[in-house]
Amino acid sequence: MHGSYAAATKFRLTASYYQYKVLISNSYYKGMRIVSRNTIQKALVLAAVRRLRNHATADEVYQDVRKGHPSISKGTVYRNLSDLDKEGEIRKRPFLGSIDRYDHIATDHYHAICDKCGRVFDVDMDYPQGLEGSVKDGHGSRFTGHDIVFRGVCPECQEREQQ
């Protein structure tokens, strides 16, 4: 009980003992930071992103999770996508001219977007670490990483064009 009370006092929380117990059971303290817990909903969202494997949008993930769990809310799915991105389990990929997508591969790699259908897929090539360090004139900017997105026509769209 001392740890719970001390942690809650650190954050200047005003709550009943019951609310402290709920807070402590739902989260754990690490220094001055509350680290979110793993929940069934978070596991469902992670499983959906990994199952879809298509750089899914938040709405596509929501629709997939909802098939098996119709009572889950869109807000719950969106919040868990954000948490999973922050925790490094998945990666949010903002593509110009498109809505954000969620990648089941959380390591650095490149992508391509089909000019015809908008499909996003992974490109199999080496990812040179530190490429941003070779920029000759950053106009005063400090670069922290890089993304390269290739454009082209996917095999399915090429096949449709030939028919």
Structure description:
The longest helix is centred in the N-terminal third of the chain and has 13 residues, at 40-52. This protein has helices at residues 2-10, 17-26, 40-52, 58-68, 74-86, 155-162; strands spanning 27-30, 33-36, 56-57, 91-93, 101-103, 110-114, 120-123, 149-152. The protein has 163 residues and is of the alpha+beta class. Helix 3 (40-52) crosses helix 5. Helices cover 39% and strands 18% of the residues. Strand 1 (27-30) and strand 2 (33-36) form a beta hairpin. It has six helices and eight strands, in the order H-H-E-E-H-E-H-H-E-E-E-E-E-H. The chain has a three-stranded antiparallel sheet with strand order 3-5-4. Strands 7-6-8 form a three-stranded mixed sheet, with no helix packed on it. A two-stranded antiparallel ribbon has the order 1-2.
Oligomer: single chain
| Number of distinct helices | 6
Beta-sheet strand percentage?
Answer: 15-25%
Helix content: 25-40%
Largest sheet: 3 strands, antiparallel
Based on CA inertia axes, which overall geometry fits? flat
Instruction: State the order of secondary-structure elements, H for helix, E for strand.
Output: HHEEHEHHEEEEEH
Q: Strand order, biggest sheet? A: 3-5-4
Beta-strand segment tally: 8
Mean pLDDT, nearest integer?
Answer: 81
Distance between the termini: 71 Å
Unreliable runs, pLDDT <50, ≥5 residues?
1-34
How large, in whole angstroms, is the Cα Rg?
21 Å
Structural class: alpha+beta
Task: Describe the structure concisely for a colleague.
This protein has 163 residues and is an alpha+beta fold. The protein has 6 helices and 8 strands. The chain has a 3-stranded antiparallel beta sheet with strand order 3-5-4. The protein has a 3-stranded mixed beta sheet with strand order 7-6-8, with no helix packed on it.
